[in-house]
Amino acid sequence: MDMKNKYEYFNIRDRCRMRLVKYLEQVLNNLPEFNNPKILDIGCGSGVPTLWLAEKYTGTITAIDTDKHLLDFLEHKIQRNNTSSRIETKNVSFFDLETDPEYYDLILAEGFLNVVGFEMGFKKVIATIKKNGYFIIHDEFKDNDEKNALIIKNNCQIVSSLLLDETIWWRDFYGQLEIEINKPQNAHLKSLFINEINEIDQYKKDPSLFKSIYYVVLKS
Ligand SMILES: C[S@@+](CC[C@H](N)C(=O)[O-])C[C@H]1O[C@@H](n2cnc3c(N)ncnc32)[C@H](O)[C@@H]1O
User: Fold this and answer.
1) Are 217 and 172 in contact (CB under 8 A)?
2) Ligand 1 pocket, 43 CB below 6 A?
3) What is the rounded CA–CA span in Å between residue 86 and residue 176?
4) 1 has pLDDT over 80
5) Beta-carbon contacts of residue 123 (< 8 Å; ≥ 6 apart)
6) What domains, with CATH codes, occur in the chain?
């Protein structure tokens, strides 16, 4: 694998992903102030939200993912940003993560629960987060009533939620990716964008499938 091309591809994806961070900011701005929080970012990927959290909060962040290539790229950005004293990356599955129970003040799972299964992932997060800690979930918008019921059944409250509809996903992500993919100077990266090209095709067939939601969950 040509690492230069791979990192160019990651950088383009990151620039598009960055346009969605304002929605995370919107949900976090409604929470009380945290004092040096201990944060866990589960399924951090290339860490666009991770690095943004490190700017917003003075605490420490554990960023975990099973994909070593993405974590290596995140490590490279951490070194460049001089944030290595506050961000620790771990190439581990969340289900094998060894941590004290009720340790974290704030847990972020963006696009993670829909990969591993909402109920199984949710229950383990709740065991990992402190009482009165917050869990921010960014999930596909599907089975909303069932998820709400599960959250409440596990002694948690939904403090707020934010729906990102298909127009947002096009304007802030897929539309931008399409522009980047079609730039002549990015033609050599086309084969790396295979999944994104498929997702853009799916979007064009049925945009209504591309809705997501933030749940801000408080463990009581
Ligand atoms: C949709 S991506 C989201 C990436 C990032 N959170 C973001 O919002 O840009 C989901 C990530 O979860 C990771 N993942 C999947 N299963 C995992 C597991 N069991 N433990 C930790 N990470 C996992 C994948 O490797 C992938 O990077």
Assistant:
1) no
2) yes
3) 31
4) no
5) 154
6) 3-219 (3.40.50.150)
